[in-house]
């Protein structure tokens, strides 16, 4: 049995990790994640926290990806690569569509969406008739933002940390229809859910007709108390609808949409589910579908059909069908194991860099804008090296070390958003930490 160190240095990497993890499969099976391997991953013994620290297990997962190891991609919060089985499924569906496009695309592939819809709905605890596939969370959320009836003077409420594209959507409605957009600040980070609910409630006025809130704030990784805000909002103004931006939540940590009690939920599936780029999901509670207008026109007979939100004209079926393969990969790992691993990676770099900034010899202090308490965050973290321009620091990491992170320059704070994923290695995390520790100790090179 190979140790982790021996495994990393081995030319026969896939075979080595198979032996170390006690799994029995060939290199070809490893690369393609065969049903047998998926089953063995799913049945690997150990609690989520134990599996999170089992590097042999995650080395197996890492080999499912075709990631370029000449760089370190810690911007999986923007878009994540798909594992090989998803890539191959996507290509397979595209190839089939081109055999006889009109027949293959509309007669064969479009109906195949329905089993995928059913599986996704079951995974997250909702009715298949409440799930529409979209191209990303922006499309999903704009269906809700643009599709609800608002009149002049009506007010929509959100925080100052919500996603810029969604804020832009409301600002355009404000220009066109003279509605009002109201934003308020929340603590960075916040470890008191009741305070978040109170801030939402205090900012409601008699004119408030819609609330937008993030399940996870994309720039800090803060998890917000969606269910509590939804329940509070239903007590005001005859029931204020809450549109939930779940772009970063679904498949990053383990929950059911049905647990949230919300009516509207929008997601990008090309982030934490590892589905093809350009896939998203919209959940609308069944009794709310009829009164929500689609972005693109649908026939009147579709008013109560969730599929009216999929009326976007001719489009490829392959990306949506490959969502099923991404779900299979996710299920093999398991939501709880994935959550534990992502949090383990985040804690590894975050605690180390906080400690580096606290050293008496450090030239720069560090400030973590993300709570490390598990109920308030998961795989996303944001850290500031005090006194350094975050954009210049991100440029240095990329230009000199091929490490990709995101510089966040917000009116209320700045820092680096760091988002490893399940294919990230401890060696990559530690290499990132080593570079950052050098900057913290000495500053950026002249």
Write structural notes for this entry.
- This protein is an alpha/beta fold and 446 residues long.
- It has three domains: 1-64, no CATH class; 88-326, Aspartate Aminotransferase, domain 2, CATH 3.40.640.10; 339-442, Aspartate Aminotransferase, domain 1, CATH 3.90.1150.10.
- 42% of the residues lie in helices and 13% in strands.
- It has 19 helices and 13 strands.
- The chain has helices at 4-8, 13-20, 27-32, 35-42, 48-52, 55-62, 84-97, 101-109, 113-123, 137-147, 164-177, 193-202, 226-233, 257-260, 318-321, 323-333, 335-357, 390-401, 426-442, and strands spanning 72-73, 131-134, 155-159, 180-184, 208-214, 242-245, 264-268, 280-284, 366-368, 381-385, 403-404, 406-409, 414-418.
- The strands form three sheets. The chain has a seven-stranded mixed sheet, sandwiched between helices.
- Mean pLDDT is 93; it is low at 1-28.
Could you give a short description of this structure?
This protein has helices at residues 4-8, 13-20, 27-32, 35-42, 48-52, 55-62, 84-97, 101-109, 113-123, 137-147, 164-177, 193-202, 226-233, 257-260, 318-321, 323-333, 335-357, 390-401, 426-442; strands at residues 72-73, 131-134, 155-159, 180-184, 208-214, 242-245, 264-268, 280-284, 366-368, 381-385, 403-404, 406-409, 414-418.
């Amino acid at each position: 049995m190979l140790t982790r160190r021996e495994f990393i240095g081995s030319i026969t990497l896939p075979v080595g990790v198979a032996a170390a993890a006690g799994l029995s499969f060939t290199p070809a099976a490893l690369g393609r994640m065969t049903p047998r391997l998926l089953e063995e991953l799913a049945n690997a013994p150990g609690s989520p926290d134990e599996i999170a620290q089992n590097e042999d297990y995650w080395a197996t997962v890492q080999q499912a990806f075709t990631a370029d190891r000449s760089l370190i991609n810690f911007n999986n919060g923007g878009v994540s690569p798909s594992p090989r089985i998803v890539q191959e499924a996507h290509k397979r569906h595209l190839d089939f569509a081109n055999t006889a496009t009109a027949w293959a695309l509309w007669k064969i592939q479009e109906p195949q969406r329905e089993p995928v819809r059913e599986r996704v709905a079951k995974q997250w605890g909702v009715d298949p008739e409440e799930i529409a596939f979209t191209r990303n969370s922006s499309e999903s959320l704009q269906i809700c933002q643009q599709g609800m009836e608002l009149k002049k003077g009506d007010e929509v409420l959100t925080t100052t940390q919500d996603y810029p594209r969604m804020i832009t959507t409301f600002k355009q409605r404000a220009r066109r229809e003279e509605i009002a957009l109201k934003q308020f600040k929340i603590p960075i980070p916040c470890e008191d859910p009741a305070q978040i609910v109170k801030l939402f409630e205090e900012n409601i006025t008699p004119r408030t007709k819609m609330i937008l809130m993030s399940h996870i704030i994309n720039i800090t990784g803060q998890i917000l108390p969606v269910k509590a805000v939804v329940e509070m909002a239903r007590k005001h103004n005859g029931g204020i609808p809450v549109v939930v931006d779940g772009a970063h939540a679904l498949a990053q940590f383990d929950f059911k949409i049905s647990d949230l009690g919300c009516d509207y939920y929008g997601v990008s599936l090309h982030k934490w589910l590892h589905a093809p780029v350009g896939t998203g999901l919209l959940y609308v509670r069944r009794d709310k579908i009829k009164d929500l207008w689609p972005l693109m026109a649908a026939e009147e007979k579709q008013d109560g059909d969730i599929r009216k939100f999929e009326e976007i004209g001719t489009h490829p079926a392959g990306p949506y069908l490959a969502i099923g393969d991404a779900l299979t990969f996710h299920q093999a790992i398991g939501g709880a194991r994935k959550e534990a691993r992502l949090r383990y990676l985040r804690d590894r770099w975050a605690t180390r860099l906080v400690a580096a900034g606290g050293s008496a010899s450090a030239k720069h202090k560090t400030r973590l804008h993300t709570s490390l308490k598990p109920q308030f965050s998961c795989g996303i973290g944001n850290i500031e090296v005090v006194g350094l321009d975050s954009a210049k620091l991100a440029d240095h990491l990329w230009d000199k070390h091929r490490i990709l992170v995101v510089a966040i320059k917000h009116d209320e704070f700045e820092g680096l958003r760091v988002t490893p994923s399940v294919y990230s290695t401890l060696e990559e995390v530690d290499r990132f930490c080593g570079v950052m520790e050098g900057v913290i100790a000495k500053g950026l090179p002249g």
